[in-house]
Each structure stands twice: as structure tokens, then as C-alpha cells.
């Protein structure tokens, strides 16, 4: 009964709970319990965040900051392979305001593009090991894509000089492959997009390189869980915010935060509406 050690403030006469007796006591006790519950939840959240912060700091002490390597020249694409509209210009296209609605015919093309992207990504993941450079991964990905008669979508997009995005450690996304060798304990996100028969297939995954510390393993595990939770929210009639809610619920349990990047529509256009927030 410590919640009632100080009497509640008087309620105005018009209040439905202003009459004396049990109703007033129950309402005040419930309000006090709710406040205490919120304080406990907030304290737990802060403790979890602090633990994650300490893990992150300890991890940073053990690993040298990411340094830019040498970026090799852009790889050629055979002339017979169809190019996306942005090829040949370094101007970054705006996100297209139109929503791409797919019919049965376009879904067939989307399946083919996404299936190729998935195979390329799976192959790229087998190359992740200490002493391999991200430039070597780019070369292998580029060759596999053009051998399949497709165009590597990132190449030339807004001046991007490579055929795949390789984001190592603290590089959040869209990292440029270069001469830096992967080291034991790195994590690397490989983002593969292919342009096949006029349609983009877009996918990515984070891989562990060698022996990775537990905080990094947990980060990758929780991130994958968030992706699957977001996917599970996708169905006809669902609101976009449900996707972010599912992700945020899981993120908050571990004291992580979500960077303000977004998902996007994909199809004949690389990036289009709808913009999907992850939080």
C-alpha cells in the first residue's frame, strides 16, 4: 500500500470517480501501479541499453577502425546486356514517386530477377573468409551476374563504381568494395541487386568472417530476427507501420536502435515508393 502513502489529489465534483469509497481507491491504485510499471520498464530498458553500449565499446577497443582501401577501376559489362536507364550518368536518381503494382506477368520477371540475385548472394557468401578482399568479392559477383545475361544494378547508380555493396563492421550500408582484406572477426553485409529482362531483384545478407565475438553475433542474429518479423507483417490490407512496429518491438528488447534508413519499392525501377520505415 505504499502507493497510497500520499493521498490522491481531490477530484472535481463532476468526475465519475469523485464519489468516496472503493471506486476512487481502485482508480488511484491503478494509476500509481501503472506509473511504477512504466518506471520499471524504463529502468530495464536503460539498463539493457547501457549493457549493449558497454559491449559495443569493448568490441570497438578490440578492433581497428575501418580504413578505406584502394578502389579499382569499374568493370566492363558486355554490350549485348540491357542497361538500366541511369547507366551512363553519375546523377543520383530521385526515388520514383510512383508505386509499382505488379501483375502476373511482371511477377514472373520479378521472380527470375530475385532468384538470380539470391543465387549470386549465396555464392558471394562462400567467399567471405580472412585475407579475401571486398574487391575480389565484387569481381566474382560481377562475373556471375554478366554470365547470367544480367546487369549489376549498383554499377553506375549515382556514380557508384562497383557491382555490389560490401559493408564491413561499422559501415552501415552501401560500402564500396576496395583493396582492404577481410579480417578474422569482421562482419560484412553483401548487398546484391541484378537487372534482368528489365526488372531489378534486390537482396542482402550479413556474414560472419572467421571467429566473431559474441556481441557481433548477437547483433547479426537480432537483425535477422527483425527482418523475419517485418516480413511476417506483410499481407494484403496490413498497414506499413505494422512492419516498423514488429521490428522496433524486437530491437527494444536488446537495447539496440534502428538507423533511419528505409525499405523501398522495386521492379522496373530500382528505388520507388512506397518508402517503408523500419521503426
UniProtKB/TrEMBL annotation:
Residues 55-67 have a biased composition (Basic and acidic residues). The keyword Protease applies. One of its GO terms (molecular function) is metalloaminopeptidase activity. One of its GO terms (biological process) is proteolysis. InterPro entries: Creatinase/aminopeptidase-like (IPR036005), Pept_M24 (IPR000994), Pept_M24_MAP (IPR001714), Pept_M24A_MAP1 (IPR002467). It is an enzyme of class 3 (hydrolase). Gene3D superfamilies: Creatinase/methionine aminopeptidase superfamily. Its EC number is 3.4.11.18. Signal peptide: none annotated. Cotranslationally removes the N-terminal methionine from nascent proteins. The N-terminal methionine is often cleaved when the second residue in the primary sequence is small and uncharged (Met-Ala-, Cys, Gly, Pro, Ser, Thr, or Val). This is Methionine aminopeptidase. It comes from Brachypodium distachyon (Purple false brome).
Amino acid at each position: 500500500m505504499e502507493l497510497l502513502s500520499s493521498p490522491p489529489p481531490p477530484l472535481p465534483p463532476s468526475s465519475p470517480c469523485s464519489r468516496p469509497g472503493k471506486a476512487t481507491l481502485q482508480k488511484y491504485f491503478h494509476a500509481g501501479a501503472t506509473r511504477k510499471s512504466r518506471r520499471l520498464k524504463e529502468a530495464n530498458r536503460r539498463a539493457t541499453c547501457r549493457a549493449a553500449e558497454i559491449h559495443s565499446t569493448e568490441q570497438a577497443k578490440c578492433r581497428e577502425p575501418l580504413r578505406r582501401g584502394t578502389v579499382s577501376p569499374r568493370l566492363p559489362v558486355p554490350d549485348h546486356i540491357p542497361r538500366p536507364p541511369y547507366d551512363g550518368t553519375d546523377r543520383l536518381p530521385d526515388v520514383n514517386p510512383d508505386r509499382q503494382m505488379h501483375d502476373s506477368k511482371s511477377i514472373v520477371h520479378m521472380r527470375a530477377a530475385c532468384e538470380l540475385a539470391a543465387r549470386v548472394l549465396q555464392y558471394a557468401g562462400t567467399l567471405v573468409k580472412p585475407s579475401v578482399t571486398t574487391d575480389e568479392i565484387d569481381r566474382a559477383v560481377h562475373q556471375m551476374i554478366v554470365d547470367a545475361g544480367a546487369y549489376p544494378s549498383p554499377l553506375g547508380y549515382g556514380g557508384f563504381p562497383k557491382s555490389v555493396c560490401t559493408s564491413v563492421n561499422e559501415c552501415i550500408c552501401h560500402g564500396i568494395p576496395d583493396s582492404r582484406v577481410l579480417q578474422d572477426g569482421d562482419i560484412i553485409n553483401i548487398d546484391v541487386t541484378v537487372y534482368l529482362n528489365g526488372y531489378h531483384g534486390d537482396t542482402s545478407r550479413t556474414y560472419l568472417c572467421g571467429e566473431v565475438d559474441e556481441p557481433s553475433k548477437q547483433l547479426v542474429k537480432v537483425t535477422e530476427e527483425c527482418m523475419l518479423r517485418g516480413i511476417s507483417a506483410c499481407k494484403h490490407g496490413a498497414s506499413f507501420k505494422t512492419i516498423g512496429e514488429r521490428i522496433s518491438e524486437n530491437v527494444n528488447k536488446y537495447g539496440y536502435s534502428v538507423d533511419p534508413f528505409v525499405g523501398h519499392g522495386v521492379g522496373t525501377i530500382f528505388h520507388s515508393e512506397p518508402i517503408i520505415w523500419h521503426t
